[in-house]
Amino acid sequence: MKSIVTKLKQLNLTTGLFLKPTAVAVDIGTAMTRFGLDEKGIVLREPTFVGKNTRTGQILFFGNEAKDIYGKSPEYVSIIKPFENSIISDFDATVALISELLKKSIYPYYRSHLIKKGLAAYATVPTNSTEVEQRALQEALIKAGFQHAYLLEKPIASAYGADVPIFFYQPAFVMDFGAGTVELAVITMGGIVASKVLKLGGDYMDKLIYNYLHLKYGLVVGEQTAENLKNKLFALTDSKEVFPVRGKSLENGLPKSVRVTASDIREALAVCVNQIVDGIKELIETIPPEIIDGLIKSGIVLTGKMAHTPGLDKYISNEVKLPVIKARKPEDATILGIMKLVSEPESLKRVIIYS
Ligand SMILES: Nc1ncnc2c1ncn2[C@@H]1O[C@H](COP(=O)(O)OP(=O)(O)OP(=O)(O)O)[C@@H](O)[C@H]1O
Ligand SMILES: [Mg+2]
């Protein structure tokens, strides 16, 4: 028996056996990385953050751990976000993070398998990504431990994960509002008709809040505090909520508390919200009238975690005169869409990027 096992293992090592590799859905977002497996569902959600020892270059912290110490780490640890505006900004940090997250979430399922089939990554890229950026992601995935890496356009996956029928004549408009980008796309019959990527995601909004507090209250806060404020108070409604924050006084550097209001946050982000609405209008202007007609029925589907912003759907709908529907699980739409496509080989073939 033992010799059969050894032989099988040898065969696998030398020939890779003719088994299909295990497909892993991979959504590396600017804020969150998510992995999914067909038979297990979403198996990982961790922040796209690493902590690097600046003296040795070694990566010491990954995901949740790295995000937890953001802004509080000692001088020799630098916290890096390896994705910016939904594309790789630090190749080595991306490889280290994905490799660690694979060990944590995917390998445990397959450790016990007698025959290793290899892993195939199915990951997304923004519609405006260049060939060089696409290759960089594929290389990073292979270096991190995948044997194969396939790419899909992000809005296709997000729309499918939001249960939008993307393979029909009826057009679909998806707006994926994440941390890095607001990605707008009109899809028909599995292909993108028009798209636009705005670098106005949640991370940019956090910076606007930081600047606003600086100017209005003379208050210096950490990036995490600015993000918390956005998530607690940002609403496109007449919310009167208040949230106390602590930071440093710009005047004397001493601790200072301020009661920030929802109307402060609306004011801080008003220009950005208008830029997003203008982006949607500009995209609509480029679409043929027949497609607009179809969109009047199907509307705009909101995905990405920023879609939880109260009143966002109504606000956009009033501005652009189309129905706007928030997806059921907007933050998981991309990963769910990749998983769904991977489980339907015929659909997958139609949307994979061949390069
Ligand atoms: N309850 C909430 N309501 C609104 N926004 C939220 C909420 N919780 C988190 N966010 C914000 O949503 C953003 C993260 O969204 P998401 O997880 O969709 O991004 P991502 O997929 O990592 O990024 P991207 O796809 O743009 O590269 C962050 O800016 C975060 O602060
Ligand atoms: Mg995303």
Topology:
Layout: H1 2-15, E1 22-28, E2 32-37, E3 41-47, E4 50-53, E5 59-62, H2 63-68, E6 77-80, E7 83-84, E8 87-88, H3 91-105, H4 107-110, E9 119-125, H5 131-144, E10 148-153, H6 154-161, E11 172-177, E12 182-188, E13 191-198, H7 202-217, E14 219-220, H8 223-233, E15 242-249, E16 255-261, H9 262-285, H10 289-298, E17 300-303, H11 312-320, E18 324-326, H12 333-342, H13 345-351
Parallel strand pairs: 1-9, 9-10, 11-17, 17-18
Antiparallel strand pairs: 1-2, 2-3, 4-5, 4-6, 7-8, 11-12, 12-13, 14-15, 15-16
The site of adenosine-5'-triphosphate has 21 residues, from helix 7 and helix 8.
Structure commentary:
By secondary structure, the chain is an alpha+beta fold. It folds into two domains: 2-156 and 335-351, Nucleotidyltransferase, domain 5 (2-Layer Sandwich), CATH 3.30.420; 164-327, 2-Layer Sandwich (Nucleotidyltransferase, domain 5). The protein has helices spanning 2-15, 63-68, 91-105, 107-110, 131-144, 154-161, 202-217, 223-233, 262-285, 289-298, 312-320, 333-342, 345-351, and strands at residues 22-28, 32-37, 41-47, 50-53, 59-62, 77-80, 83-84, 87-88, 119-125, 148-153, 172-177, 182-188, 191-198, 219-220, 242-249, 255-261, 300-303, 324-326. The strands form five sheets. It has a five-stranded mixed sheet, with helices on both faces. A five-stranded mixed sheet has the order 13-12-11-17-18, sandwiched between helices. Strands 5-4-6 form a three-stranded antiparallel sheet. Helix 3 crosses helix 5 (131-144) and helix 6 (154-161) packs across helix 12. The chain is flat, with a radius of gyration of 22 Å. The two termini are 44 Å apart. Residues 8-17 have low confidence and may be disordered. The chain binds adenosine-5'-triphosphate and magnesium ion. Residues 29-32, 86, 178-181, 201-203, 227, 230-231, 304-306, 308-309, 331 line the site of adenosine-5'-triphosphate.
